[in-house]
Hints:
The protein has 259 residues and is mainly β. It contains four helices and 15 strands. The chain has two domains: 2-148, Oxidoreductase, molybdopterin-binding domain (Sulfite Oxidase, Chain A, domain 2, Alpha-Beta Complex), CATH 3.90.420; 157-256, Immunoglobulin-like, CATH 2.60.40. Helices cover 8% and strands 38% of the residues. The strands form four sheets. Strands 1, 2, 5, 6 and 7 form a five-stranded antiparallel sheet that branches. The termini are far apart. The mean pLDDT is 92.
Amino acid sequence: MGLHLMECAGNVRATHFGLISVADWTGVPIADILDHVKHKPEASWVMISGFDQYINQPVTSVSGASWIFRPEELKAARAFLATGMNGEPLTRDHGAPVRLVVPGGYGCTCIKWVNSIAFVDDTAEATSQMQEFAGRTLQQGVPQLARDYQPATIDHAATPIRVDKWSVGGKLKYRVVGILWGGSQIVKTLEIRFNPNEDFVPVHGFQQTSNDLWTIWTHTWSPCEPGHYAIHLAVTDPPVQARKLDAGYYVRSVKISEV
């Protein structure tokens, strides 16, 4: 099935935005299964469920692992049932024997330990999994019906990872290194600024060739004076939906002590 990125819907500053990874998956396209299932015309949604019952009640989440999709949504995303990862059989921690992977979707949609695939109709209520992650996947409130949910896809996102200090020709220069990921379109122009009162400028070392993975970018920077700087990024070409990025969700700060 190839290399695909997965990100937790709870990938926040407190975790240093580290709840994200890329793996090489093997499995079976979900379309191969859905196309061979006979169902009533009104059953136009698919609920994929996985084992999620334990003796002790979870403290930080609600029991239940199910998500309801439109079949065409799964097909467009090239979703698949995974049986292997990185050249090895899928491990129990990663959802063995079978888990769902939805490229471009948040990890909460990638159901582990799949034990049921069922067709449901427009009256199907949102699952506990959908309700729990509604805010994190940028839904409008917490809809009661599954049909009122937007696809839990990852918008375009970008964040700095580190700032290096270099001496070049006897002068100090700084290099910002970061990643861009998410979205369904190839990004042509990523822009950066270091203070709210500055204009955005194009990132120097950026070129994206695939949106299935993350793209590493670099930008050379010569700050005018020592101080604290807030690094903000924006996708400007093409115009895309980047709600968390535009809201400053991934802004990182750095203290520059000498220039």
